Amino acid sequence: MLEREYKICCNCIMDSSDQNIVFDDRGYCDYCNNYKSIILPNWQTDAIGRNKLIQLSENIKATSSDSDFNCIIGLSGGLDSSYAAYVAKEMMGLRPLLFHVDAGWNTDQAVSNIEKLVDGLDLELYTEVIDWEEMKDLQVAFLRSGIPDQDLPQDAAFFSALYRFAKKHNIKHVITGSNFSTECCREPEEWGGYLGIDKLLFGDIHRQFGNKPLKTFPLTDILIYKLYYQMILGMKIHHPLNLVPFIKKDAEDELERHFGWQRFQHKHHESRFTRFYEDYWLPRRFGFHKRRAHFSSLIQTGQMSREVALERIARPEMDEHFLRQEFEYVAHKLDLTVNELQLIFDSPKKTFRDYRNKHWMIGLGASITRIIGNEKRFFR
Ligand SMILES: [Zn+2]
Question: How remote is the CA of residue 246 from the centroid of ligand 1, in Å?
Answer without folding.
Answer: 21
